[in-house]
């Protein structure tokens, strides 16, 4: 309900829109931080974390943008670009010439002179003597809502209807808090937390919006920049030079004033330059230092800002042209597989002739701008970027019109196959939980082969699920290759899932047998060593020891211990210690890791969740005690199991114990459900044995149907 007002407020005061004025940007950044802190505290306070507020009175000051000619803007983006371009090729920002576009598109056309601002102030206040306690949870939310309404009203972002609804919500909440209804509970409390039917207050929506839309831009990592193609390396550089440049960036990225070149690609080369190789690009030498980089930004601040504005304007134009084409022609996407500079002219041509494209039926597809006209087997239509005139476009459409029905069918089938493939991969990921699964790493496969591969993985998913695959990646490859060291399974499109399961079982069984043999060998070695030590001690007692034999035997034992100890680097333990270890951790050898080397394909099997037998630790403890798990095998020459059987039989046959157990159960039920609402003591032994049940007929009596009189005959 409040999202429209909150979004309008965000777009008027966001610090990124004030990059032309550092003082205004700083004021709004500080106000954003204050508001974020206040909303986070209020949200936690509402949820039950009763912390004191940052302050009982907080004054907020924002600069907001003022747009005077919103209603006079032309809706044609191309016309605005033609009329508002200055001699340098950068779009101008006159209020009367700007088109009606999104707020982020406006950022590209704003100049330091063109944006007008106004100062708004509002104050958040809590009553005097406020204490962070449970009764004040509603008071905090109403105070924050009142402050937010005042802030939105001063920013001219909230209408009277929405404001009155918020006031009515707060008044109703205050009345419920003062005099809670007896029979009608709060409708918001009936909805579970997080359900879509739960009503959200102004505080809730403001907290969500500030987390999702208004978070201040943080410095990304070097990996994120490279994934977004914002760091480009020149082909003339050696690998060593590229590594040095990337190391410098990784080490000092936080000190390079990222906010000044945020949306500009960084090109690593052997010289300094701005906007030469790529539109909006920043070229730096590979051996730059952070001081040189910051100095270069400072000395060329105007050129960098101008280049950044041009790049933002160019990107915004391309984005808006693609968006409007997709909306008008119901396209899924417009791909660009060539230079964006060349593609802009073709995009403008297509944008001007949207009605012509619609008339020829070029709809419900995906278009691609490339170096030639073509049609793909998956239904994508490729357009040559060399096409510049409407006449060429019309001739191409006439030649293509006969194939469009087939292309739409191919595209629909391909899209359905892709969606089915993604569904099977998602289900496989949920079942097996691998480190990764990718059916698109190999571009030589067709959609049908990818779908077959995903279905086969989905089919054998339950058989693979009881192993731990969290570090393994399943990839679609041209041929079968299982790389245990890199933890990758490359499977061809026609792989046999059952054979894969058998192979994994054999690997696991072989690893288990190998581990078992190693354990048996180590155990035998320890036993042999203990026997030799006992023989040696006996021989020394009899003074029959041979010095040379002692030295050779000691050397042999030491060599055997170093070659194959139970734990590498640890000497074998004594017989007494080994027995103590066995008593303290029985059957531990069965649960040890299944391989003796570090490169272990499947080191630990996943614990079986369905094998949990007990409802609680107490129940498990009682069961183990009953089975005599913690007791010695014999006590006073009588087996422990017999003693437990006697005790169990005594408790079953003794009336007092039965009554005590029933009383304990009754007390637990009454403590859970209350004593007055339900009575549990009405059930007698006759009810348990069904003596008092009218539906159970005694033996030897005629079967009587309830509600029917027996016949006289």
Automatic annotation (TrEMBL):
Pfam families: DUF4460. InterPro entries: DUF4460 (IPR028031), TCAIM (IPR027986). It comes from Leptomonas pyrrhocoris (Firebug parasite). It comes from the Eukaryota. PANTHER family: T-CELL ACTIVATION INHIBITOR, MITOCHONDRIAL (PTHR31596). Residues 77-109, 169-200, 531-550 are annotated as: Disordered. This is DUF4460 domain-containing protein. One of its GO terms (cellular component) is mitochondrion.
């Amino acid at each position: 309900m409040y999202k429209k007002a909150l979004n309008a407020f965000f777009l008027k005061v966001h610090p990124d829109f004030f990059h032309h004025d550092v003082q205004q940007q700083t004021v709004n950044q500080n106000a954003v931080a204050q508001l974020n802190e206040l909303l986070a505290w209020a949200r936690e306070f509402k949820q039950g974390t009763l912390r004191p507020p940052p302050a009982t009175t907080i004054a907020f000051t924002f600069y907001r943008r003022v747009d005077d000619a919103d209603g006079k803007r032309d809706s044609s983006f191309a016309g605005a670009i033609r009329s508002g371009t200055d001699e340098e090729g950068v779009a101008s920002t006159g209020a009367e010439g700007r088109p009606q576009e999104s707020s982020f598109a406006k950022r590209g056309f704003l100049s330091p002179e063109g944006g007008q601002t106004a100062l708004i102030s509002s104050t958040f206040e809590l009553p005097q003597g406020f204490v962070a306690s449970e009764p004040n949870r509603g008071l905090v939310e109403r105070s924050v809502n009142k402050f937010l309404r005042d802030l939105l009203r001063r920013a001219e972002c909230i209408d009277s209807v929405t404001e009155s609804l918020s006031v009515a919500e707060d008044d109703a909440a205050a009345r419920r808090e003062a005099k809670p209804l007896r029979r009608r509970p709060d409708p918001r409390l009936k909805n579970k937390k997080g359900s879509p039917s739960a009503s959200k207050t102004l505080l809730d929506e403001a907290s969500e919006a500030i987390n999702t839309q208004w978070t201040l831009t943080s410095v990304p990592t070097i990996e994120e920049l490279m994934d977004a193609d914002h760091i480009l390396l020149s082909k003339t550089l050696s690998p060593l030079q590229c590594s040095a440049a990337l190391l410098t960036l990784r080490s000092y990225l936080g000190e390079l004033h990222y906010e000044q070149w945020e949306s500009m690609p960084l090109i690593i080369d052997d010289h300094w330059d701005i906007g030469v190789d790529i539109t909006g690009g920043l070229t730096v030498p590979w051996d730059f230092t952070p001081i040189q980089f910051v100095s270069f930004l400072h000395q060329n601040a105007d050129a960098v800002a101008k280049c950044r504005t041009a790049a933002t304007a160019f990107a915004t134009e391309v984005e808006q042209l693609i968006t409007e084409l997709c909306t008008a022609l119901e396209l899924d996407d417009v791909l660009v597989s060539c230079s964006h500079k060349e593609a802009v002219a073709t995009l403008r041509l297509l944008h001007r002739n949207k009605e012509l494209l619609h008339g020829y039926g070029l709809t419900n597809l995906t278009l691609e701008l490339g170096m030639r006209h073509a049609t793909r087997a998956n239904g994508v239509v490729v357009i040559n970027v060399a096409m510049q005139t409407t006449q060429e476009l019309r001739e191409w459409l006439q030649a293509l019109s006969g194939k469009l029905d087939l292309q739409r069918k191919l595209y629909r089938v391909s899209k359905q196959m892709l969606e089915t493939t993604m569904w099977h991969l998602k289900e496989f990921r949920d079942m097996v939980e691998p480190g990764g699964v990718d059916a698109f790493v190999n571009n030589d496969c067709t959609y049908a082969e990818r779908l077959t591969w995903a279905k086969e993985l989905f089919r054998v998913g339950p058989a693979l699920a009881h192993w731990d695959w969290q570090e393994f990646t399943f990839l679609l490859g041209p041929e079968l290759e299982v790389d245990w060291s890199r933890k990758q399974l490359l499977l061809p499109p026609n792989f046999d899932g059952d054979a894969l399961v058998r192979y994994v079982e054999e690997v696991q069984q072989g690893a288990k047998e190998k581990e078992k043999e190693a354990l048996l060998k180590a155990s035998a070695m320890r036993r042999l060593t203990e026997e030799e030590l006992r023989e040696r001690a006996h021989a020394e007692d009899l003074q029959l020891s041979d010095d040379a034999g002692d030295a050779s035997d000691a050397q042999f034992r030491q060599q055997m211990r170093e070659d194959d100890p139970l734990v590498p680097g640890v000497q074998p333990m004594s017989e007494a210690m080994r027995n103590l270890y066995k008593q303290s951790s029985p059957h531990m050898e069965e649960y040890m890791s299944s391989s003796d080397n570090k490169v272990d394909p499947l080191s630990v099997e996943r614990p079986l969740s369905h094998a949990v037998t007990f409802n609680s630790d107490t129940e498990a403890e009682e069961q183990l005690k009953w089975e005599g798990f913690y007791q010695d095998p014999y006590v006073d020459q009588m087996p422990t199991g017999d003693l437990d059987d006697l005790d169990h039989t005594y408790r079953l046959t003794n009336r007092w114990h039965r009554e005590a157990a029933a009383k304990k159960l009754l007390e637990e039920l009454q403590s859970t459900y209350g004593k007055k609402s339900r009575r549990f003591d009405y059930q007698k032994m006759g009810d348990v044995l069904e003596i008092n049940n009218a539906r159970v007929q005694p033996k030897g009596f005629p079967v009587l149907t309830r509600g029917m009189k027996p016949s006289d005959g």
